[in-house]
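User: Run a structure prediction on this.
Assistant: Running it now.
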Amino acid sequence: MLGGDLEVRRLGFGAMRLCGPGILGWPRDRENARRILRRAVELGVNLIDTAYAYGPEVNELQIADALHPYPDGLVVATKGGVVRDGSGTWRREGRPEQVRAHCEGSLRRLRLERIDLWQLHGPDRNVRFEDTVGELARLRDEGKIRHVGLSNVGVDLLERARRIVTIVSVQNRYNLVDRASDDVLRHCEREGIGFLPWYPLDVGRLAEPGGRLEGFARAKGATPAQIVLAWLLHRSPATLPIPGTASLAHLEENVAAARLALGDDDLAALAG
């Protein structure tokens, strides 16, 4: 559950990779994006993550094109507060008027009257954090946002935000190799906040032929990607991984990871 009233399955779908190269513009095969999104829903995925900056704008348009009118229970979570230019630079922009413009633009592109989960893509060091979050609280009070989430924050900023508005999710980089946000994950677990790990499949050399992860996966009759996703699901009841792909085969492989059981010994061996 997110916010007590959004019931989502533990494994979502990150739509970012459906954009063109460098997460800029449209992909060469636009129909493939439609197939991927529709198949994700067919497989039972009911949380799709996107952002204004993906494309920019392209990813939200893809989702609306493929899935609107949205099936009952589907949560489309988007983000704002980051802008991009033609060079592909990711620049944080947390001015209240800017995050409002991002939110209202997302409403139009996604063809929604209210966004179920709108997440600040990252804090802007040049803007007082409370000013940014205060605008999100106003957007929620106006009915444009149902729930507010944060991305790329530590515990201190999370708690500063919670003094202004209820926060239902945090989206930070987190995977088997990079566990720098362990303290944020544990805090979210204690406070009943969803934790959406981005870049969940970064396993690098662990998945190389002959590597530790490859042998572990073979013993389980699974793929390395399925093992790391299952590890994330078992890591904490707060985790809601959102792996992304532009491949139908990989999508089905990722979704199947939710059925993979790992015991305490497995978890200890992987964490080591």
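The longest strand covers residues 145-151.
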